[in-house]
Amino acid sequence: MVEFILGMFVGLWLWPWWGLGIFGILFIADSILCDKDNAFFGTILMVLGMGLLVWLAGDHNPFALIWNNLAHILGFLILYFVMGAAWSMIKWRFFLASLVREAKQDFKRWDHKHVADFVRPDESYAKNNAGRIMGWIGHWPMSIVGTFLGDIMLRGLVNLCEWIYESLSKAYEGMGNQAFAGLEHEAEEARRSKLEAEAALADVQAMDEERQLDHAFGKDRQ
To answer: Where are the domains of the chain?
Structure first.
């Protein structure tokens, strides 16, 4: 069976460039579909796509190839699904960790009342993710690639960007303060002038009111 598996991979790399390109597109599409809990459509896409590629790019009849190597293929499928089961356990742990991170972020934003009302999300139960987990089992090579690119590399890139931002946040704020220092000074002077003008106007109005009162009392005395 080992020779059969090695022969499959060697035969794959002997395909023409367009065959390898189509295989890569199928692989990426299936990774996305598996991650979006649509493994059924991904399975149909891969089975039909690989059958056509074996026929057109590999120059083999896919049905004859399966029939002539039935025992090897059955052994390969057993090994394939055992590895898929192992990967599904690892992927499920990654999935739960992502849900816990989201819940912790919510806890930071919530007050004590909302935290007390917290309920474990429905998608954290395996029974509510049967399709997703079966997709991980049946499409584990694509799931591994999707996890590495989407979960590990992307999260690492996000964490790196957050660390750089936090390290340079004071420098960013200093540049912003420096850039607007002149305008803020002019605005402060304008506010001070406005307050002084309003105070002067209030004094003038108060003096006018006093004169009017004095004038009115003067008339009453007369």
So the answer is: 2-176, 180-221
